[in-house]
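Subject: for your reference before the review

Hello V.,

The reviewers asked for a structural picture of the protein, and I figured it would be easier to keep everything in one thread rather than splitting it across files. Below is the amino acid sequence we used in the manuscript, unchanged from the supplementary table.
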Amino acid sequence: MGILAAGHAVMFKRDPRSATIWVLSVLLVPVLGAAGYILFGINRVNRKAQHIRFTPDPGATFPRDEVVLPPLPGDLAGLARLVKTVSSKDLTSGNSCRPLDGGSQAYPRMLEAIGQARHSIALASYIFENKGIGEEFVNALVAAHERGVDVKILIDDVYVRMSFSDAYGPLRTAGLDVALFNSPIIPARLHSVNLRNHRKLLIVDGTLGFTGGMNIHSPYWRPEAPESAMRDLHFELRGPVLEHLRQTFARDWLDSADTRLERKFWQLDSRQDRPANERVLARGVESGPDETLDRMRWVFIGAINAAQTRICIRTPYFLPDQPMIAAISAAALRGVEVDIVVPENSDHKFVKWASQAHYWQILEHGARIHERSGPFDHTKLMLVDSAWVCLGSANWDARSLRLNFEFNVELYDEFLAQKLEDGFDAVLKESRQVRADELMRLPVTVRLRNGIARLFSPIL
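And here is what came back from the structure prediction:
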């Protein structure tokens, strides 16, 4: 078993560091190492995904007139071409995007949208609690269901299994249509227990969407002490890009509930999908350990290579691999300003140690890393040249780039990008810039600890 598992890892694992870790685990821990590799190391999700891909695309789709897009500045036209190729989706015009800063802005707006829903609600969340603000969401969804709204809710199974306060039970008891993503208790899915749905989507009546980094989670909601609440950015979207959100949810629902969402679920027509006088260009990007593997990595690297003046990155987990480190370094050497903001206080210490072990490679060629103090910052955002925005659920780590199912949106709009960049600069003022010399002064034991943690970054 060990020889066969190690041989499979050597031949089929794309990342050599990941292959090395698995080979050592398999050979040094007989039987258990091989069993672990069979359960967690082999990706068979693509077989199911390919089956879905060759069936008629679920969700709401309808013919559109050809849209003539305005010319994009600088090298962004090449970036748009790259994202179109890897995502298989067209860039849409006539969209609007409203940033929502933290739970104090996002949750009331989402609850208001649920309260005003007339036809349908589609909600996907990695974490969905049934306490605090989560209980308010449960009550709002139950009320919508009772007034005749068709409600579909998708929650990742691992969180439900590990939590004593999840919303799955109360929602099911209330008669709502709830599905668990990739339930490992089913023997056929044991091999993919490590592959989770990290997407955050809320689609109301098919025409109003919310996505970003926020779960339905009580640490985001501290009305009695808002300064202590966990930080994050969420976004409200309208326009043709909602079709990409609808299709993503519909595919996940088909895979989890084994039920196809017909067009009538959304109850809309093409006229409802284009708000007047909006100019934001937008496109949804799905990624995951299926046929969409490596999409977000290509988008991030493509954006770095397209940058001419400045790159701004906010991420809670920063574990770039060597190609991404090389792209960031090359951009800095070209004269591009590169600023990366990470939280000083992480919710996963081992991941933080591994992240700090990468710092010196980022700093040595001129890119800058800033650690933001205070409550944990879960924001996921990338800005390029004050014109391009990438938002969504994906982190800069192997779990988001290779193991999890993620959903991001790329947007082209100078007004929106400048607004978000102003917010980014405000965060920089309250963050501490990491210096290369201070890294060298760290105790040897700390640097050794961080280096050992870094060895596991391909599977963190």
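For the response letter, the relevant points are probably these. Residues 242-257 form the longest helix (16 residues). The two ends are 25 Å apart (CA to CA).

Happy to draft the paragraph if you're swamped.

O.
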